Amino acid sequence: MTQLAIPGIRTGEREQRAVAQPLRRRRRLGPGKQLKFGAALGPILLLVIWSIGSATGVLDPRVLSAPWTVVTTTGDLIADGRLQSNLWTSAQRAFAGLGIGVLLGTVLALFSGLSRLGEAILDGPIQIKRAIPSLALLPLLILWLGIGESMKITTITLGVFVPIYIHTHNGLRTIDSRYVELAETVGLSRWEFIRWVVLPGALPGFLLGLRFAVTAAWLSLVVVEQINSTSGIGYMMELARTYGQTDIIIVGLVLYGALGLLSDGVVRLVQRRTLSWRRTLAD
Amino acid sequence: MKLMPKKSLAVLAAAALAAVTLLSGCGGDAQAGGTGAKLALDAPLPTEVPDGVKIVVGDPATQVAFKLSGQLDKVSKYTTFANLSGGPQTTEAFRAHALDLGSVAEIPSIHATWTGLHVKIVASKFRLDPINHPIYELGVAPGVQVKTLADLRGKKIAYSPGQAQGALVLKVLKKAGLTKEDVKLVELPSTGDIYPNALAAKQVDVAPIGGVSIKRYLTKYGKDGGTTIQHGLRDDAGHLYGPTESLEDAGKAAAIRAYVAAWGVAQDWIDKHPKEWIEGYYVKDQGLTEADGQWLVDNAGHPDISGDWSDAIKRQQETIELLAKETGKPVIQAKDLYDLRFQTVASDAIKAAAK
User: Of these four, A186, B35, B123, B292, which has the most CB atoms within 10 Å of its CB?
Assistant: First the structure.
């Protein structure tokens, strides 16, 4: 326990102690300064544990390939060009779905957030969609959209728009009513209000949604690339499953992990830049 | 002025929702197209493929064979390829009207019919000396003693209803003189590497594993005591089948006939060019090693594409009766599953190409 000298209360004992020693520093309650390369620490620790486990033989290579096997397999896959071409196809699908999904989620969140009737109409179906796994929707999507690219991109879009919608809607609804009143007082038009109050106010929520959305886009890929694809990381992994090539499956998983971490990092960077006006616990 | 919730926004919201629904509704991939002219199922097959007719075919391996043998351009005039094969995926695509032909084994055509989907088999491929060149072997988990089929009594066996592997398990039990009550059937779909993994993890005692999985299972888990045994039955059926609605379109029927002829020639090409096939399909397309490819080619033996389907129909009828008894489904007639107009198309094409 640190004792604080409280001015105005005089007890003989305290008086003497306060004179005898200078005031102790205040206890820090926030997490403090950022660690250097702190973001990389966790993944590196994982990698170290994995390596030790493989080297000592605790991890059976048939169940989980060693990190160096993954590296050499990656090398082989890059050498015959399979990795790049698959990654490129997957990236195109993911970005197409992400782009459409982000736009859709934002627009729907605005409609539902700014209008009671819009909320009444839109919010229910979206919550229902949220409760249905994409994988379970796939048979229906195939019936409706066939087995081509449009079905794949739609599946990704559906996985992406929900987190964007939820977080943007939530961010929008938690905008302080002071700002709304201020906007009404200075006589902003509806579009000016959206531009200067709603969008910036919902931005923290939107960016959090985006962090979920970028990983959701990569995750949906595995689901859709099992159907009528001849390329993509999901296809590569599925093919390796058929032949029991565990090492290729793990290359795929590591790739997903890396892509997820990377895209998440990009969004967090954007977050730091655009939300620099916030003074919060994170800084 | 009031900036909070308003009706006009709701109208916009409804409009946006409608637009999204529309957008996603018109995404069906219209790759296939027939002439629309009706053709009775017993009318002679047209031999000329009209211009502009396209069928969608799920037959990935033959697609590669066309590419390797230089036939792809010719076939692509009337074919779009989809990377689908196997029962569940092809029937799903048939229902979505997204596929005209699929490459499967013996069971899917029976199951499709039981689920109310009308399909016909238009090409069949078997193996010469099928007992010594089986597609599947029975994988036995490490530490489990199964040397003969009689040893299956009391064992946990992976069973996948609706797939060739499932029917094979039933046939094996029948051959061993056992009933379903004498063993413990564990329902498990056989996709990817599920069966070898289930064996390795000792979740099941016995599971039918096929193709390169046999070799990989033995190299990976042989040292722990994993083994395989032969079942000694025929499991070599391979069919092209499609929905009858495609066969009722005169244009598509002509295209299917042309495809079946080209397919026959391609199977023959695969048999006569094992080196190119291993390099071009197993190594380049499927990402296996040369040794794996060689092993698969050796194990497949030689194809048997006959112009007489009567034996095949008889065998399929036996399968239907066994499945119907075990699953409580009605017995259907195997001869109704075959479109006999196609009986000699593939074998005649092989003969003509050999000249």
Answer: B123
